[in-house]
Write a structure and sequence with these properties.
The chain has about 160 residues and is an all-alpha fold. It has a domain of about 60 residues. It is built from four helices and two strands, in the order E-E-H-H-H-H. The protein has a two-stranded antiparallel ribbon. A hairpin with a 5-residue loop joins strand 1 and strand 2. Helix 2 crosses helix 3 and helix 3 runs antiparallel to helix 4. The structure holds zinc ion (ZN).
Length: about 160
Amino acid sequence: MSFDIYGNNLQRGHCEVHPNIAEEYPCSLCQSHSQFQSQEADTTCEVQSLQNDLAQSNSYIDSLRAELAKVTAERDEYIKFHTENLTLIAWIARETVSVKIDGNIKARFHFYLAKRDLEQQAKGVDEVLACRELDGLSQGEIHTIMLIANRLRKQAEEL
Ligand SMILES: [Zn+2]
């Protein structure tokens, strides 16, 4: 006499896990149960993989949102600056329109300032020359000062 897994007598030709089924172990119920378990494991695996994908997508979307917020803030700041300084920006655009370099208005303005700086220095040297206090200078010294003024003016022109 054999027994089922619950310790009861088992009829010949019956499954020891499912004693009321007249098939030997593993019966068709055993087999379908094991198939179900393996499918369940596969499904769990697939769900986990989808959850990972979703987490990655969410994290990517978060980083895109952060990037968008940053770009939007920069744009707003630019618009604000532009709106508040329209007169100044128009003036710079007008003043630097003849500047030889390409580029944005900021680069043009820097170039314009460099040129103006040299022109102002040349003008300053001219004023030194015109000053009466220089009466004591020799012709050679005056000549040197004039050369400096001309060099500065030439540098400004060549910019
Ligand atoms: Zn069974």
